[in-house]
Amino acid sequence: MTVSDDAFIFAEDKALKALLQGITVSDLKNNTRDVKVWFGYPDVELRTQDYPYLVIDLYDIQEANDRQHSGFWIDNTNRGTQTATSSDTYSYYAPTTYDLFYQVSSYSRHPRHDRSIMFEMLNKKIPGKFGHLIIPQDNGVGVVARHMFLEGFVKRDSVEDGRRLLRNVFSIRVVSEMTPAQALLATPQVEIVNLETTPSTLPSGFQPV
């Protein structure tokens, strides 16, 4: 089976890389440089190592049991993807909730570039607990943006070949979900929903509410 680039994990990868684009840094001589964005291992991309740049790594996936629902959800718009009608009712299994954990590392040689990247990341791209990640594939199901949190920040400056390498590591958590294929096979379209407000007969011991 071929997995679409819009599928779970692929969509988040693409959206995070798009979000991190557009950072520009400058030095005291007002020379500007665009900060490139790449995927790290195992999604190795062909690239020249021009400083400064960012590297994205997906390092963990965990089930988010604190957000998990169970059972079937029933509606008449198929999660906002269909026009609501009185004759159509859709059912689907509650998706499995996941948290995706990313590590974004920045690399630069110039201290001013390093500070500029930190400012852009912490002030605009991943502003602490107020971050969000827009997944275009979510628009059809009524989701405007995913929650995204800065879980941690570590500075990892070092010396490489006699020159300072200024490195920052941002740990990010992205809220996500996925409906497993097995659940999809078990969720046919509901054809009829009967609601009885005053049933004529009740099992022994039951009273109408």
Task: Report a brief summary of the structure.
This protein has 209 residues and is an alpha+beta fold. It has a single domain, classed as STM4215-like (2-Layer Sandwich), CATH 3.30.2000. It is built from three helices and eleven strands, in the order αβββββββαββββα.
Can you characterise this structure?
- With 209 residues, the chain is α+β, with helices and mostly antiparallel strands.
- The protein has a single domain, classed as STM4215-like (2-Layer Sandwich).
- It has helices spanning 10-20, 111-125, 181-185, and strands at 24-26, 32-34, 36-39, 53-63, 72-75, 90-93, 96-108, 131-133, 146-155, 158-160, 163-178.
- The strands form three sheets. Strands 3, 4, 7, 8, 9, 10 and 11 form a seven-stranded mixed β-sheet that branches. The protein has a two-stranded antiparallel sheet with strand order 1-2.
- A hairpin with a 2-residue loop joins strand 10 and strand 11 (163-178).
- The mean pLDDT is 80.
